[in-house]
């Protein structure tokens, strides 16, 4: 105590024994909040550092646990810069705490936009944490940015003095390696690496990063599925064209083989006829008239066979031409259908993309103002009660098929419907033969709609070849005048009984049998055309729900 200066408040004059204030506990019993074993001095508050004073008569002791310089102020504030945009403050604080205890972490914010800037200040509880952070965190690569940690001149002076006075506090390489491994693990498993495009970050916190990543993942899966779907379609079209080409090549090969067989048969037939003529001419004692009659008969048979071959060749050429025309029409129809499906798919993709962009923009615009008002405490009850209207996502049939293999597309439904119809028609035609009458009266009395017969061209397409074949069987040759006579009667809608009367003059007893067979053929073709062209009963429409299919 200096003369003329009063003693500090609550402390006795120097040189005098300490006095006990009223209401204080006896000396040697520390009050609550003071360190055990040390009495709390008068005028001090609980939690304040206790002056280290040895008891009376004890030798002086030096305590070296405190890492502070005598009479020096602690400077442990570190500047943290080059922080990547969108990096969360919680992650930054956790990263800084790997090096030591952090008293405070403050991220600088732009006052005009309320957006966090790319730097902040961290205050450690001791110099050891500061030194470790400068060694391990300075230059750390986070999201493509290297963090910058540095201290000012006062802190650097304090750290230099601390290292000089406490050489034993220098950490080992093993300790740094453990801390470095913890930093690497923390960086690798942090919740958000890069801020998604188009997402506004407020206060350094990303809004629902899990939902944003899920949307991006679904978008990538949708694009990949569209690419795979196009590749499958192209592969299927290539395989179809390859099958068509192979089928045509097989048809050509078979046709060449049949032509070669016919030519070989014709040569054998010519050789046989020449041999017969020579044998007949060389036969001794045979009259010339008999040989001539036999020769004329064989000549007539040759002419008839030649005409039949010519007719068959004409029919084959016409059938081949019809097949070529039908194949070309089918190819054009398939190309038009594929082109139309591709255009519809592109339009659907554009529509879905526009809807997604519109939905994303509406959600971003709609959330911005309510979040700002809610953050400022001005959110009204009406605003809180309003809910975001959800827009259902429309999936194409290809996407539904990829999601659920059991889903049946429209094309598959149509194919199943056509297959069922073909099977049903085939069974009905098989049963039709049993229903055609075999008795003369019932058969001739069967009703025929001649307008349908003419419209379906049953007579030229079905009956003409049959009549030609049967006339040749009955008369031994294809008599053209007889064939034309029968076909004209069919075209004139002549009744069956009248046909029997007219044909009995030529065919005699075979006329009735011929007309009955022809009439059964006509009835069969008429009924088959009716079955094949019958209108299908419309199926009841079923309501289809995309959400129901997804459940």
Our estimate of the beta-strand percent is 5-15%
Largest sheet: 4 strands, antiparallel
Number of helices: 16
Q: Number of DSSP strands?
A: 6
Low-confidence stretches: 1-12, 14-18, 28-39, 58-70, 192-207, 540-551
The portion of residues assigned to helices is: 55-70%
- Principal-axes geometry comes out as rod-shaped
Biggest sheet, spatial arrangement of strands? 2-3-1-6
Beginning-to-end CA distance, first to last residue: 88 Å
The succession of helices and strands, N to C, reads EHEEHEEEHHHHHHHHHHHHHH
Gyration radius, rounded: 53 Å
Mean pLDDT: 75
SS-based structural class?
Answer: mainly alpha
What does this structure look like?
The protein is mostly helical and 551 residues long. The protein is built from 16 helices and 6 strands. The strands form 2 sheets. It has a 4-stranded antiparallel β-sheet with strand order 2-3-1-6. A two-stranded antiparallel ribbon has the order 4-5. The protein is rod-shaped.
Give me the secondary-structure topology.
Elements (H helix, E strand, L loop, with lengths): L76 E5 L7 H9 L4 E8 L6 E9 L2 H10 L4 E2 L2 E2 L1 E3 L2 H13 L7 H16 L20 H74 L5 H89 L4 H5 L11 H7 L6 H26 L4 H5 L5 H7 L1 H18 L4 H12 L4 H12 L2 H23 L13 H5 L1
Antiparallel strand pairs: 1-3, 1-6, 2-3, 4-5
List keywords for this structure.
single chain; 551 residues; mainly alpha; four-stranded antiparallel beta sheet; two-stranded antiparallel ribbon; 5% strand; rod-shaped; disordered N terminus
């Amino acid at each position: 105590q200096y003369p003329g200066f009063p003693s500090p408040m609550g402390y006795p004059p120097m040189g005098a024994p300490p006095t006990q204030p009223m209401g204080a506990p006896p000396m040697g019993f520390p009050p609550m909040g003071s360190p055990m074993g040390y009495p709390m001095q008068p005028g001090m508050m609980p939690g304040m550092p206790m002056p280290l004073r040895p008891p009376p008569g004890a030798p002086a002791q030096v305590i070296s646990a405190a890492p502070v310089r005598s009479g020096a102020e602690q400077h442990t504030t570190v500047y943290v810069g080059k922080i990547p945009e969108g990096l969360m403050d919680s992650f930054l604080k956790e990263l800084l705490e790997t090096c030591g205890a952090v008293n405070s972490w403050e991220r600088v914010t732009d006052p005009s936009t309320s957006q966090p800037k790319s730097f902040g200040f961290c205050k450690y509880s001791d110099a050891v944490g500061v030194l470790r952070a400068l060694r391990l965190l300075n230059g750390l690569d986070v999201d493509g940015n290297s963090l910058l940690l540095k201290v000012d001149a006062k802190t650097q002076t304090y750290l230099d003095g601390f290292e000089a006075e406490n050489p034993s506090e220098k950490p080992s390489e093993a300790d740094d390696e453990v801390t470095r491994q913890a930093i690497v693990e923390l960086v690798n498993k942090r919740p958000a690496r890069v801020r998604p495009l188009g997402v506004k970050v407020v206060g350094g916190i990303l809004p629902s990063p899990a939902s944003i990543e899920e949307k991006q993942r679904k978008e990538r899966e949708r694009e990949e599925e569209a690419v795979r779907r196009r590749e499958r379609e192209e592969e299927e079209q290539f395989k179809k064209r390859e099958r068509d080409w192979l089928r045509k090549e097989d048809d050509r090969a078979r046709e060449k083989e049949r032509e070669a067989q016919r030519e070989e048969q014709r040569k054998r037939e010519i050789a046989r006829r020449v041999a017969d003529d020579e044998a007949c001419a060389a036969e001794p004692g045979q009259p010339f008239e008999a040989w001539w009659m036999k020769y004329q008969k064989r000549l007539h048979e040759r002419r008839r066979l030649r005409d039949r071959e010519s007719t068959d060749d004409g029919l084959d050429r016409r059938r081949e031409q019809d097949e070529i025309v039908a194949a070309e029409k089918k190819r054009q129809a398939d190309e038009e259908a594929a082109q139309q499906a591709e255009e519809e798919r592109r339009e659907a993709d554009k529509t879905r993309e526009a809807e997604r962009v519109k939905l994303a923009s509406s959600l971003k615009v709609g959330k911005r103002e309510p979040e700002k008002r809610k953050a400022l405490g001005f959110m009204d009850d009406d605003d809180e009660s309003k809910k975001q209207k959800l827009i259902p996502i429309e999936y194409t049939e290809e996407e539904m098929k990829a999601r659920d293999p059991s889903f049946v597309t429209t094309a598959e439904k149509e194919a199943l419907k056509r297959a069922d119809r073909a099977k049903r028609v085939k069974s009905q035609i098989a049963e039709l033969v049993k229903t055609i009458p075999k008795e003369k009266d019932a058969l001739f009395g069967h009703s025929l709609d001649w307008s349908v017969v003419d419209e379906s061209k049953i007579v030229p397409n079905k009956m003409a070849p049959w009549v030609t074949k049967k006339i040749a069987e009955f008369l031994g040759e294809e008599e053209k005048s007889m064939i034309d006579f029968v076909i004209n009667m069919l075209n004139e809608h002549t009744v069956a009984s009248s046909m029997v009367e007219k044909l009995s003059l030529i065919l005699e007893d075979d006329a009735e049998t011929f007309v009955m067979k022809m009439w059964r053929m006509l009835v069969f073709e008429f009924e088959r055309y009716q079955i094949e062209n019958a209108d299908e009963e419309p199926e009841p429409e079923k309501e289809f729900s995309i959400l129901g299919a997804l459940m």
